[in-house]
Amino acid sequence: MTSARQSTPPDGATPLLVTGFDAARRMLSERRTSKILDAEARGLSPELGDAMLRMILFLDPPDHTRLRRLVSAAFSAARIEALRPRIERVAADLLDAMDRLETLDLIEAYAWPLPMQVICDLLGVPTDSREEFRTWTAIVAGGAAREHEQPTQLTRLLGVIRGMIADQRAHPGDGLLSDLIAVREEEDRFSDGELTSMVFALLVGGHETTAGLIGNGMFRLLEDRERWNRLRAEPGLLPTAIEEFIRFDSPLATTTYRAAAETFEFAGQTVAVGTPIDISLAQANRDQRRFPQADRLQLDRVENPHLGFGHGIHYCLGAPLARMEAQVAFGALMNRYPDLDLAVPAGELTWRSDFMHALSSLPVRPRGARPHQE
């Protein structure tokens, strides 16, 4: 199996497609690549391009190193662990609302709102703006299919974010945004533009992948009752199972933009400067050379160095939060609804057509909820 090859999509560009696990891991750490976007060449609106160009996700060292250092100081392990009681309350409230329904869409009722509420709480998004934030972020993350809506919605989204920053700069709170405003290293601190892009990235990216993880994982449990019964009988397997859900159904199937910053040799090929590089996390995570029985979901797979959260300097900052949210979400749902079942045949489910590998919906029947205990 070839680990890296040229592929020519309909638009005529010729990116390098990296698929094997070892090759993907190496490319994720390759210093001769760049994440800096050419916003104009990619057809981004001026406002979206400006917001994205400031994102830590699309920066190279030393700018990336500086921002990563600053945000890591605010996004500490202690802060993430302190969120657990709040995440548990959010899950309980969502499950309470589900108790009254005979059938429901688990994506809409649970997988999507849980991480969205958590990131909004973390950033201090005003309660009366949260439904709008949900709409705006869905449109902005919708890719080409919704590009005609993006300029207007992005302007509104960025306007609210700037208002939040101004308000919390004047009246500091105890949330992550106030911490980001306050954090400094010697005389260095975030500019308002950097803060705006950071909040934008956290809102757009801080819930989509986690929602995909929860939805995809629940589907894999419900399509095979043996998996469901085993995980209920062995709740200690949950952290291991979550890693396997990420490997088996990576919500982010391919990496975000990167290109060769200079000409270099890779996997027996010459990669010319400027060549776009697509790294297939989904294929790397199913590489039989790294994962025995890679196409089989194993809840107890112990050695699981998947690339679902990336690798190298751009490894996902939110990975600890995503793992905690998933642990709470799965545990609370399985405990409340031991007889949860699919409401439609698995073959009728559809998957999203944008950049996310995630279900469009997951109709379920809650059945026989256990009483909620505080």
Features:
single chain; 374 residues; mainly alpha; Cytochrome p450; 10 strands; Cyt_P450_sf; oxidoreductase; iron ion binding; iron
* CATH homologous superfamily title: Cytochrome P450
CATH class: Mainly Alpha
**Unreliable residue runs:** 7-12
| Element-level helix/strand string | EEHEHHHHEHHHHHHHHEEEEHHEE
- Give the terminus-to-terminus CA distance: 52 Å
| Overall 3D form | globular
Question: How does the major sheet shape up?
Answer: 3 strands, mixed
Question: What is the secondary structure topology, with strand pairs?
Answer:
Elements: E1 4-6, E2 16-18, H1 21-28, E3 33-34, H2 46-53, H3 63-74, H4 77-82, H5 84-98, E4 104-105, H6 106-111, H7 113-123, H8 130-140, H9 150-170, H10 176-182, H11 192-222, H12 225-233, H13 238-248, E5 259-260, E6 264-266, E7 269-271, E8 277-279, H14 281-284, H15 319-336, E9 341-342, E10 363-365
Parallel strand pairs: 2-8
Antiparallel strand pairs: 1-2, 3-5, 4-10, 6-7, 9-10
Helix pairs in contact: 5-7, 5-15, 7-11, 8-9, 9-11, 11-15, 13-15
Structure overview:
The protein is mostly helical and 374 residues long. Helix content is 48%, strand content 7%. The protein has one domain: Orthogonal Bundle (Cytochrome p450). Strands 1-2-8 form a three-stranded mixed β-sheet, with helices on one face. Strands 4-10-9 form a three-stranded antiparallel β-sheet. A hairpin with a 2-residue loop joins β6 and β7. α5 packs across α7, α8 packs across α9 and α13 packs across α15. It is globular. The N and C termini lie far apart (52 Å). About 2% of the residues have low confidence.
